[in-house]
Amino acid sequence: MSFLAILLAVLVGIVFLQVYLSKKESKWPGLLLPLITFIISIMAVLGMAVYVETGVFTQAEYIDGEWVVVLEEVRREVTLGAVAGIISTFLLMNIPTVILLVIYASCRGKQCRQRALEKMSIQDLE
Known about the structure:
By secondary structure, the protein is α+β, with helices and mostly antiparallel strands. It has helices at 3-22, 32-50, 80-93, 95-125, and strands spanning 54-63, 66-76. It is 67% helix and 17% strand. Helix 1 (3-22) packs parallel to helix 4 (95-125) and helix 2 (32-50) packs antiparallel against helix 4.
């Protein structure tokens, strides 16, 4: 079996699991998978933030015929490219979160409508 077929089977399984959890009576099981994907995206962004460009600033003076380091400090510089990379990573990593939340909202909306119809039909019988 190819890697693509396995990946597709896993994705279909995740979608079915999300639909199953979203149809539960309690609303919390359906929010479990979106929460997991959101936490993974936060971890990815924090992992990127650790590796923001670090520069070493060195100040040296010429004393008695040789260069002597007078001051050395480490600076973290957040560039526009680093910020753009972090934001784009956050947005791309949250695509599964948005898809899972859309599935959740769709399933919960159908359940709400069915409950409302059941209440109306019970009221009509009385």
